[in-house]
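Q: Here's a chain of 311 amino acids. Please give me its 3D structure as tokens.
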Amino acid sequence: MDLEKTCSIEFIGEKVVPIKEGQTILGASLQAGIPHFHACRGMAQCSTCRVLVAEGLENLSPPNEKEKALRMRIPGTFNTRLACQTTLQNGSVRVHRVIRDQTDVFVYVGKADEEDEDQELGEERELALFFLDIRNFTPFVASSLPFDVMHIIRRLFRIFKKAIAKHQGNIIDTAGDGFYAVFGLKTDITSAANAAITAGFAIHAEVADFNEQYLQPFFNVSFHLGIGIHTGKVVVGNAGVGMNNNLTAMGLPVNIASRLQAATKALNNSFIVSETAAGYWPTAKEYERQNIELKGIDGEQSVYLFGEKYY
């Protein structure tokens, strides 16, 4: 019997595809061009490929040991099967893909894509913490058209996001005209600190060009930034809120980095790096060093002024 001709799977609302002897439902759907999620790459270590069987359950192979083991951890209905482990023995079957887009992935498994599949919850990591705020943006909002405000903030954030991503950072959260990022999720702390500082210099340079070439000629305005960077051990995990697949980092070092960014105004310097983070930068000693007190943080903090004066 030629199973490729006589056996088929109907993905309800999508398409009918042929399936070969011994081929899994996942294999058949991927071969047919269906974007079938399989975060663990078909190893029965997640449930993103599961299907709800509407008709033809009796035509499917019985659950194997891998599928049985996963079902013990993630209970489902009797007619839910793992597409990566299930084959069609005869006839045809009609199924619904349970997870069909990025929103479904988030709802069911708390992740938006495969990149963070190896990210553990509640893990302590030593990271570089990066806080940025756009100075004097609030007065511009109050005196400008809403369209102009959104247009410019999008252009600025495009600069920010590109620089952060280029240097292997991850934006954790945004708040109005600022954001918070971490570096080091996939690198060591030396690389992370240097990447964060490099990204800070790159952002300052690109915003200066943006001011000169676009904002001043067309809007008669320029914006300055305040950047604060610190390093330290934080708890990294998925808190179920925020952006970047709900990834968050918590701990005293995060608070210090935030306070450093806030201190840029009082210190009249656009780029403040803690002594801890600056210790990884080869030429840190060429910059001015100060001891300061930060609101809510015990003891003095030694910092380096990597930026420029606002006035």
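Q: Can you summarize the key feature?
A: The radius of gyration is 26 Å.
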